[in-house]
Every structure is written in C-alpha cells, then in structure tokens.
Amino acid sequence: MNYRHHFHAGNFADVFKHAVLVRLVRALQAKPKGLLLLDTHAGRGRYDLQAEAQGDTLERQPEWPGGIGRLWSKPNLPAGVAEYLARVVAFDRGAGNTQEAPRFYPGSPRLLEALARPQDRLVLCELHPAENQALQAEFAFTPGVAVQLLDGYTAVRALLPPPERRALVLIDPPFESQDEFARIVSALGDGLRRLPAGTFAIWYPLTERARVDDFFAELRTRRLPPTLVAELIINPAAPKMKGCGLVIVNPPWQFDREAEELAVWLAGALAQAPGAGAQVWWLVPEV
Questions:
Q1: CB atoms within 10 A of CB 112
Q2: Which domains are seen in the chain, by residue range?
Q3: Which of 23, 77, 177, 206 is 20 to 30 A from 83 (CA-CA)?
Q4: pTM exceeds cut of 0.85
C-alpha cells in the first residue's frame, strides 16, 4: 500500500467526511446505550499540515487551504459544521499550535475519540506498519481505545457483532486497489449478516462516475436495509477527483434531512469552480 494521506489531510474530502461523521455519531448517541465505533482504515490519527507541502522529492501545493482553511475563520457556521470545526480547533490548539492558521489536523480516530461517551468503545484498525506504529503511539495512553494491526475488511468479520449490539463502522480505504469497491461490498455483506441493524458509513472518491455507478448497482443487488447517499462535487471539470461521497447504511431516523443541509452548505463553502454542488438521495429508501 502506498499510503500518503498526510498530503491530503484537511482537504475538502476530509472536511465533508468528518463533518458528516460528527453529526452521524451525535445522531446515534441520541440513544443512551453504548456504541462500538469501528474505524477500519484508521491511518495515523493526527496530521501535520505543514508536511503537506513536502512531497517525496519536491515541494507540493498543500490541499488544506481549500478545505479546513475555508472554514477556519468563517462566521455564522451552521450548527452541524460548528461542532466539527470546534473539535478540529480544540485538537490543533491542544497539540501546541499557537499560530493563526491551522497546523495539526485530527484524523477520524481522534474525532471519534473526542466524541465517544464513557459507554462507547473505539476500535481502530490499520494494516500499514508505519501508520499503525504511529497510531499505536498516538493512543498509547488513551483508555477505552483499542488499536489493532489488522486488515479493515477482516475486522468487520472479526469484531461484529459487538457486545453492545450497536455499532458505527467507518469504511474509509485509500482506494489504491483496483478491486476496492468489490472488497467494500463483500465486507458490507459480512457486516450486515453479523449485525443487521449496524450503521455503516463508506467514503468514496468521485473520479470516474462509471465506477461509482457500478458500485451502486452492485449494492442494489444485495437487498440492503435503508441506504442513504450524500455526494459533494467541488469542481465538475477536475481532471482527477471532482468530489467525494458517503454511503450510509442504516442511517438514524431522518438523518437524510441533516445530511442534505450539511452537504449543500459545504458545497457553497468549498466550491472550486462553477457547477459545484451537493446531492443526497436514497439508494434504498426507508420503508
């Protein structure tokens, strides 16, 4: 695996994914019973945004100014975005940054850890040895967090169903394998067989529309429970990644409304070209 998420940390895709994730966790926490929070491709937990400008051999243009940088000092944020930003700012300041611009960005493990209640349990899986070593160090003294050197798709089979009988599973792979979508569909099927009422959030890039449409077609053959799709497009003409999306299986009741409000607002805040926008729809409708 050629894992270089630190070059992209804090970009528009992270903002979209993490802002929705914060609201999804909060919606699931409306019930007092504990949750398993399972991150299948956790990464290292924190990222130094200054490192974004350091490529393998040459300096590169950082991506965070077009993501978290757009929100950093923006007034009048909607409530859903405000909590996400507050968590990022608190992490950045807690990591020692005293400058006006952001420096340290929390990955999904740190966001989930910040949101977890005493009755919730966090399991972080990362297969890449260097990333896992960094993740182990990040949470070495954090109670209630388990870090495992484990393939995320195997973790879905191994860790479900949890004792809590409730779970949010974040599937956020690097998409460096040609069969990534097929592996996601297989893991999702395994997870739903073990925990039919579990909530699964799957992030994907919008590069080739045909591949995503094939992914949706395969999901439709699986007789899924209610499944919501939220997509953000920042530049329809971008030669590489035009935007990104989240598939949310078993979303909380009426989460579609919150997801749509959030996605539409972020589309305006993060747009990089005419035609940017957002859409939220049911891949499998609620009954």
A1: 27
A2: 5-284 (3.40.50.150)
A3: 206
A4: yes
